[in-house]
Amino acid sequence: MTRALFIARLRHGLQGLAADDIDEIVADYEAHFSDALAAGRDETDVAASLGDPLQLGQELKAETRLRHWEARRNPTNFLRAGAALLPAFTLAVLIPVIGALIVCAAVAAYVLYIAAGTGLHLAAGLMAGGVLVPSLIGIGLIFGVAGIGTLIALALDSGLRLLGRHVRLNYQLLRTPVAGRGDED
């Protein structure tokens, strides 16, 4: 693979990032090619040693989005980082995780259904007492929902942090050359 083809495929793998991020990453790889050519290496050897440019682009995109989310935590960066990290998982890992999340969501929905039914039954018996009791119950339900939403947001934040750590570790393991395998530079 030539230098131009490698850079073009790398740019394709980086689609979706900001233009300045793409330019910075491509400039780093252009410099890598230039340094290798100055050292007497062939550009096809350099491209082969770097691996698949599309996969490299996805890894770099995930890393960049994860860094953006770590620097500035907001819902947009959270969703972008999560979406960028998903392709890093193999189906063998992803399917059980999604299955566990679905089971947890079903259990949580069932518990909320039972709790709401019990709460409404108790509230119906207490509403005969006047205006104060239903008002306090309503305020309690509002704060309860807000608290549950906060706990869910914290759990998602922690989960994405752990997911990012796992993906970074896997990328480092995949890039570590193994002696005798023929992928050393």
Short key terms for the protein model shown above:
single chain; 185 residues; mainly alpha; 2 domains; 7 helices; 0% strand; elongated; disordered C terminus
Layout of secondary structure:
Layout: H1 3-13, H2 19-38, H3 43-50, H4 53-71, H5 75-85, H6 91-126, H7 132-175
Helix pairs in contact: 1-2, 1-4, 4-5, 5-7
Q: Number of DSSP helices?
A: 7
- Strands, count: 0
Low-confidence stretches: 180-185
Counting structural domains, the number is 2
Question: Termini, distance in Å?
Answer: 17 Å
Helix-strand topology string: HHHHHHH
Relative helix content = over 70%
Main structural class:
mainly alpha
Largest sheet: none
Radius of gyration: 25 Å
General form: elongated
- Which range does the strand content fall in? under 5%
The chain-level mean pLDDT equals 78
Please provide a written account of the structure.
- It is elongated, with a radius of gyration of 25 Å.
- It is built from 7 helices and no strands.
- The longest helix has 44 residues, at 132-175.
- By secondary structure, the chain is mainly alpha-helical.
- Helix 1 (3-13) runs antiparallel to helix 2 (19-38), helix 1 packs across helix 4 and helix 5 (75-85) crosses helix 7 (132-175).
- The protein has helices at residues 3-13, 19-38, 43-50, 53-71, 75-85, 91-126, 132-175.
